[in-house]
């Protein structure tokens, strides 16, 4: 079964971490990614840009209407997400708990309800 694991954050959180700790954090993230890609359980992983770079797009009168900023006004925003393919919910939970920042920030785990074919 497929799951999306999501980590939330905000710029104040990222600014809190001293710059000299980032190389180690990136190395831990790389090791995590390699470990679960090799097992076949991590399909994709993405880190997202800061919320200030987001745009909200609606259709008005048949054309895109674009505004800046996230749709929800909140301090926390989606910072990264991972697509997992696991044999069980328990296994997905184990992988989520093994994420490098799971001891600092909770990981939200969502079952994938529907997947469209990539070639459709």
Task: Please tell me about this protein's structure.
This protein is 28% helix and 33% strand. Strand 3 (55-60) and strand 4 (63-68) form a beta hairpin. The chain has helices spanning 11-16, 22-39, 89-97, and strands at 2-9, 42-47, 55-60, 63-68, 77-85, 107-111. The protein is of the alpha+beta class.
Sum this structure up briefly:
By secondary structure, the chain is α+β, with helices and mostly antiparallel strands. Helices cover 28% and strands 33% of the residues.
Write the layout of secondary structure elements.
Layout: E1 2-9, H1 11-16, H2 22-39, E2 42-47, E3 55-60, E4 63-68, E5 77-85, H3 89-97, E6 107-111
Antiparallel strand pairs: 1-5, 1-6, 2-5, 3-4
> What's the end-to-end separation, in Å?
21 Å
Share in β-strands: 25-35%
Question: Please, how many domains?
Answer: 1
CATH architecture: 2-Layer Sandwich
Low-confidence segments, given as residue ranges, are none
Class by alpha and beta content: alpha+beta
What string gives the helices and strands in order?
EHHEEEEHE
Number of E-type strands: 6
